[in-house]
Design a protein that fits this description.
The protein has 295 residues and is an alpha+beta fold. Helices cover 34% and strands 15% of the residues.
Length: 295
């Protein structure tokens, strides 16, 4: 299982590409991680991440550099009782013989804005094309529900699961990390969906003579726009100013990219690291894009 890794926080490109053996990795961890006082700071600057994908070239972290998807992850942000989820997961492993993994996130271990946040990871038998990811996630939601795990009832962030190249945090400790005990007898999930061309194709962005939009390598894209706009205007994300600054940046996006889709805006905030600095990135960004972009 080839993955691209980030060793220290969310900023910048990938650090390395390597095979990911979750069992080997989990066994190398301490039983309990040392206490972290500032969960957000840890997630932003210290935590290790991966995206289960092969890259096309180099270590550039971008949607366009993802060659394929080799596993699907679900962020379960609202788990009333982790022991209930754990028991359902064990039952699934016993009944289905599929290869799957479950672990607690930093917010669950150290305390954060989510309740017993957990991560469910299912590697795939055959890699899928990035364009098939959204359908594959929807397929797995149904499959998991049929074996007793309704991920949506556990606050699954399906937008994250469907975001190509989204960073996912690796396990931090053995406690709360569940791996198959009989890996040699298990099989990886085979995606059955076949790609269906969407009714509305993504819009091709026009070229602008706007200094904010041009990135360092000369490309014209939304991510470059967000980076350059926030730098030029000295926009930061400290508490008390996040709401106004988010409104300001999305308003600028509307002027420069009037036909931009909500998902692309969310992905830009995620890749640039802004989403990780917000209190409720999914809610904050989605609500504002709906109001400001769609009016």
């Amino acid at each position: 299982m080839v993955s691209a890794f980030k060793k220290s926080g969310v900023f910048g490109g990938y650090d390395v590409v390597d095979d990911l053996d979750v069992i080997l990795y989990a066994n190398s961890l301490p039983y309990k991680h040392e206490v972290v006082d500032d969960t957000d700071d840890f997630k932003t600057y210290q935590a290790q991440y991966f995206t289960p994908s092969k890259l096309i070239d180099g270590l550039t972290r971008s949607r366009d550099n993802i060659a394929n998807i080799e596993g699907i992850l679900f962020d379960l942000d609202e788990v009333p009782d982790f022991l209930i989820l754990r028991d359902l997961f064990y039952r699934m492993l016993i009944q289905s013989k599929v290869e799957a993994y479950l672990w607690k996130t930093p917010s669950s271990i150290f305390g954060g804005k989510h309740v017993n946040a957990s991560r469910l990871y299912i590697p795939l038998r055959e890699p899928i094309a990035p364009k098939l990811l959204s359908q594959a996630v929807d397929e797995l939601v149904v499959v998991l529900k049929n074996v007793g795990i309704d991920v949506e009832k556990f606050g699954a962030d399906l937008v994250s699961s469907k975001t190509i190249g989204r960073l996912m945090g690796l396990p931090l400790q053995q406690e709360g990390t569940i791996v198959p005990w009989d890996i040699d007898t298990r099989f990886k999930y085979q995606v059955k969906s076949v790609y269906i061309e969407p009714e509305f194709k993504p819009l091709i962005l026009p070229t602008y003579d706007n200094e904010f939009i041009t990135t360092e390598n000369g490309d014209t894209d939304l991510i470059g726009f967000v980076i350059n706009y926030t730098k030029k205007h000295g926009i930061t994300w400290f508490k008390g100013e996040r709401d106004d600054n988010l409104t300001r940046v999305i308003g600028a996006i509307k002027k420069a990219f009037p036909n931009m889709h909500d998902d692309e805006v969310y992905e830009a905030f995620d890749i640039t690291g802004i989403a990780s600095q917000l209190d409720n990135p999914e809610k904050d960004i989605r609500n504002k894009t709906k109001r400001l972009l769609r009016g």
